Amino acid sequence: MTCYIRSVVVLLILLAVPGCVKTSPAIMEGDLIFHESLSSQGAALKAATGSRYTHMGIIFKERTGWFVFEAVQPVKATPLSLWIRRGKNRHYVIKRLKNRDDILNRKTIEKMKRIGKHFLGKNYDNRFLWSDRTIYCSELVYKLYKRGAGVGIGKLQKLKDFNLEHRAVKKLMKIRYGTKVPYGEPVISPVSMFESSKLVTVRKG
After folding, report:
1. Deepest in the core among 52, 78, 93, 195, taking most CB within 10 A?
2. Domain range for residue 135?
């Protein structure tokens, strides 16, 4: 038996045995993607939330490929490959609703996209307020899911619930709020959504 034939035989055996060959699950519309931002704000968010992951978006497919709809400055759709390159060491985690097939049908996805268009071009909310006038990353994804699919992912908290005593956090808060800190403002953090029991991890990179 030649080396080539032996290689083919081995490959066929591996393909025939469950679990021998692992492939990454296909990306699907509505998947949530997280990474570690390299911005100065990212460092403060990490200190305030205790989470590695400080930025997130929602994945949609358009005619030209896969995009991450995200709240940066301004809210926009970023090609998936470019979004991944922006994160620290290009590491990312993609999560999905456990019961996605029961909730995210084509009609629901299109509704979420229509809602997203109302946020497109809006300024980034660096004060983390709950108004739609400006919006931050996890707030955008939360509202798309809540209003488009009727699903709340993660737990809403108050600004006062986070670690606000860290030096980097206090410095950022002073710049953005002065002496009027909205401690009672509702906040949804990336880590709250990341740790939601409604999600399952489908891919890491």
Report:
1. 93
2. 24-204
Nearest by Cα to 45 from 189, 193, 184: 189
33 within a domain of the structure (yes/no):
yes
Domain at 30, CATH number = 3.90.1720.10
9 belongs to a structural domain: no
96 has which bridge partners? 200
Domain count, the chain: 1
* Average of per-residue pLDDT across 173-191: 93
Q: Is 10 within the bounds of a domain?
A: no
For 99, other C-beta atoms within 10 Å of its C-beta total 11
pLDDT at 58 exceeding the cut of 70: yes
Query: In the chain, which residue ranges form alpha helices assigned H by DSSP?
Result: 3-16, 40-49, 80-86, 100-103, 106-119, 137-149, 167-177, 190-194
- DSSP states along 42-96: HHHHHHHH--S--EEEEEEEETTEEEEEEESSSEEEEEHHHHHHHSGGG--EEEE
The tokens 């030096």 sit on which residue?
167
Please indicate, yes or no, if residue 12 is contained in any of the structural domains: no
Output the pTM of the full model. Answer: 0.86
Measured at the alpha carbon of residue 139, what is the angle toward residues 145 and 88, in degrees to the nearest 5? 105
End-to-end CA distance of the chain: 39
Minimal CA–CA distance to 108: which of 100, 119, 96?
Answer: 100
